[in-house]
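Workshop exercise sheet. Pairs work together: one partner reads the sequence aloud, the other fills in the structure field after running the prediction. Swap roles for the next sheet.
Pair: D.N. / O.F.
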Amino acid sequence: MTKNIFIILISVLFINCKQTTIAQPQEKTAEKTKVSDVAAIINFLASDELEGRDTGSEGLEKAAKFIEEEFKKNKIAPYFETYRDTFDAKGTATYNVVGFLKGTDDKLSKEFIILGAHYDHIGKGKEVDGDVIANGANDNAAGSSAVIALAKQFAQLKNNKRSILFVLFGAEERGLLGSAHLAEVLKEKNINLYAMVNFEMIGVPLNDKPYKAYITGYEISNMAQKMNEYAGSELIGYLPKAKEFQLFRRSDNYPFYEQFKVPCQTISTFDFTNYNYYHHVDDEASEMNFEFMAELINSCAPVITKMANTSDKEVKLN
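Structure field:
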C-alpha cells in the first residue's frame, strides 16, 4: 500500500465516523420551568385585580380565562367541549378548568393521570391596615402555577404514554365541590384512573426537613416511595402533622380517592410552622419563594413523566 492510498483511506474513515456522530439523534428535553414563569402566574392570580378569586366572582372568571389562555398557548386541548366543567356550588354557578393531553401509546393512553390544584380562594378576609382582599398566593395560586407549568413542559415533548388531565378546581373553599363534581363525572364516564397528584400550598420551603415536600395520606400507598425512586433523591417525605390534621381528607385529592379507590394524594410544603398567612389578607405574591417553587416543579416533572410511561401501574394502594 502506497503512502498516498493510506492517507486517502484514513481520511475517508475519519469523514464517515464524523458523519455518523453528527447523524446521531439528540434526546429532546422540555424547557424547564423558569423562576420568572412561576412569578408571572402567581403575580396575576394573586393580584388585587382578581379580588381573592371567590366562587362566582368576576375575579374567578378572570383567573379561568387566564388558565384557558395558558392551555391554548401550550396546545393543551380541552377535555370536554370547552375547557370548563360547569357545576352548581350551593346555588352559585362556577367551573373547573380541565385540559387534556392524550397519551402516545395505543393501550396506555386509555389510562389517566390527573394533575390538579384549586384556583379559587375566599375573596375577602379580616381587614388589616385597610386591606380586605385575601389574595390566596400560597392558597392556592402556588399549586395552580405547578399544574400550569407542568402542562407546558409535557406539551413540549408529548412523550407521555398515559393520558394526562390538567385540572384547576373551583369551589374548593366551599367544601371540595369542584373536585367532587368532576370525580363523579369521570366515574360515570368510567375512565381508567391510574393516580391523581394534587398540589396545595407549595409557595415556601419546609422548615428543617431533608425532603422538599410532603404527601398527604403517606401511608395509604407507595406513591411517596415511588416518587423518590423515580427522582433518585428524597423528594417527598412524611409529615406527622398532615396525619394529625387529616389533610388527606381536606383537599381535592380526596373525592377522587373516594370515587376510584386508587392513589390520589396531595403534595404540599405548608408544615404549620413556615407560613403565618393562611386565609389572611397578607397571603400575597410577595411572600412566595419563586426560586424554591420552580425547583420543586422541575423536580416533579421527571417523576410524573416516569409515572406516565411505566408499562405497569407501579404506584399502588398499600
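Discussion prompt: The CA atoms of residues 72 and 78 lie 9 Å apart. What would you look at next?
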